[in-house]
Amino acid sequence: TKKIAIIKEIRNAVPGLNLVQAKKFVETAPVNVKEDLGKAEAEELKAVLEKAGAVIEIV
């Protein structure tokens, strides 16, 4: 329901994605957004994406 907001945040989080790529990225969920992040950076990204409406799991 909040796909547009999530797509915008994914475009901000993953450099180099265009709109079409970000849309496909969101539609193929569950996916790894980023790997090998520090705990603080992972928590910050999680908070931003959850605020947009995504469900996030840090592993």
Automatic annotation (TrEMBL):
Assigned GO CC terms: mitochondrial large ribosomal subunit
Membrane-spanning segments: none
GO terms under biological process: translation
Keyword Ribosomal protein attributed: yes
Lineage: superkingdom: Eukaryota
Keywords: Ribonucleoprotein, Ribosomal protein
Domain Large ribosomal subunit protein bL12 C-terminal: 2-58
GO molecular function, one term: structural constituent of ribosome
Protein name: Ribosomal_L12 domain-containing protein
Organism expressing this protein natively: Caenorhabditis japonica
